[in-house]
Each structure stands twice: as structure tokens, then as C-alpha cells.
Amino acid sequence: MDTHLPRLTTLVTEAATALVAARKSRRPLPALPVVPTTVAEAYAIQTEVARRLGPVTAWKVGAPGPDAEPSYAPINAATLFFDTERLPATMFHVIGIEAEIVYRLGRDLPTRDEPWTRDEVLDAVASLHPAFEVCDTRFRDYGSQDPLAHLADQANHGALVVGPAVADWRAVDPVRQPLTLDIRGERVVDVVGGNAAGDPVRLLTWLANVGSRPFGGLRAGDTVTTGSCTGTIFVPPGSRAVAAYAGIGTIELTVQ
User: Fold this and answer.
1) Which of 236, 253, 242, 28 is CA-nearest to residue 140?
2) Phi, psi (5° rounding) for residue 103?
3) Are strands 249-255 and 86-87 parallel, antiparallel or unpaired?
4) What are 146-204's pLDDT values in tens digits?
5) Which residue, 32, 60, 206, 236, has fewest beta-carbon neighbours within 10 Å?
């Protein structure tokens, strides 16, 4: 008899219920009622939360280094925005701005036994976009919990704001992409590349083969953000952020 299953069921149910309640009530948690102790447990909670929140239409994926195992989180339709320059500050407990690069799929990449190759994944991409992720937390203090608890909490996702599509996206080299970020009129980031994971396409391919499996793979129309190019910049309500990607375009966002 597998004695781990009752603990896992209790863990997922109690933690997911607490996280969903914190979202709906806007009352941050001091901690989870039951804490995940493995990556698998954290993902099980994360998956249950996503299923309770509605359709998954986007993903975030990242890694702390070029050779590190990536991590992911599903993003629900309710926190995915296109061509939006303003969001209400009441959506968030904290407002952490990250400028990112997003890929949008034009066809399905369902789970299969044979891994999808890098070229196959790129062939499924319909467009590339500049984007902002707004990082947030369902906990009382951002970064206050064990990393597995934050992974369970949608990996600190708050909202994803996607800018206009790039016409010739295959000409974009995200590893060598110049990017500036201005907050409240002040230049706070000026980088080339800037993503700790290195090549974002590695992350996209990993997501297609590994991360998206609990949901049956990736689907046409799915939007994938591939990690921060700027780090997380915490801002007060009313702050205007402007990210300029050379050769790609500019995206603006005010959370007020």
C-alpha cells in the first residue's frame, strides 16, 4: 500500500484551497496549511490551483542558469492580457515588473513518446511578442516562504501583458536582444539578452516536452513567456513602465 497517497491528497486539497481562497478574498496567507517538501508536490498543488481557476491559456517557464533544470507554471485566461497599457492595482498584493519575451503557438504540440525537437517547436510558433509579467504573491510577504511554496503559488505569477506581434520573429536572437526598461521615467535596466536561463528556446522546448504534460501538452494559441530579461523591479501603484526592445518594439504598462 502506498502510504504517500493520503498525504499527497490532503496536501494538494488543503494547499490549493488556501491559495484559491487567498486570491478571492485578497487576504494574503502567512504560510500554507500544509507545506510541499518535494518539487512533485509543489507542482501537484500548482496544477490543482490552475484547474480550479479556469482555462489555461498561457505558461511561464524559466531557469536560474543556462544548464539548470527549468521550472514552469500554467497561466489562466483571467490573468492574460493583450495590447493593454493599464491594469488596476487592486489585482495585486505586490507589483513586481519584469520585461520578458513571449512566444505564441500557431499549432498544437500534444504530449507524445518521442520528444519534440527544437526545430519542430519553432515551426509551431506563430509569433513573438514583447511582454511584461507582473509578479505577485498570495503570501503576506514576497519571497518569505520556502521556494517550493512559491512554486506551488503559480511561481509568483500575477499577470501577463503581451504586446504586438513581431513581423519577422525568426530574425530575433533573444540571447543577443538589446532591451531597456524605464520605470517612472528613470532608466533602471539596460541589457543585452538578460535572461538568466540563456536561450529561451531551450525553455520553450522543455515546456513542450516536460512541463506541459499534466495538461496534455501545448495548444495552438497558447502564449509562453520565457523568463525575465530584467529581474523583478517592485514598484508602487501608479508607476509607468516602458520596455524598449531594439528591432522588436516597445511595450508600456501602468498599474494604478
Assistant:
1) 28
2) -115, 135
3) parallel
4) 999 999 999 999 999 999 999 899 999 999 999 999 999 999 999 999 999 999 999 99
5) 236
Residue 144 belongs to a domain: yes
Q: Based on the structure, what is the number of domains in the chain?
A: 1
Kind and range of the H or E element at 101?
strand 96-105
Backbone angles phi, psi at 202, to 5 degrees: -60, -40
Residue showing cell 521550472: 71
pTM of the complete model: 0.95
| Residues of the domain holding 224 | 55-255
Question: Is 17 within the bounds of a domain?
Answer: no
Three cell numbers, residue 104: 505564441
- CATH (domain of 198): 3.90.850.10
- Grid cell of 12 as nine digits: 494538494
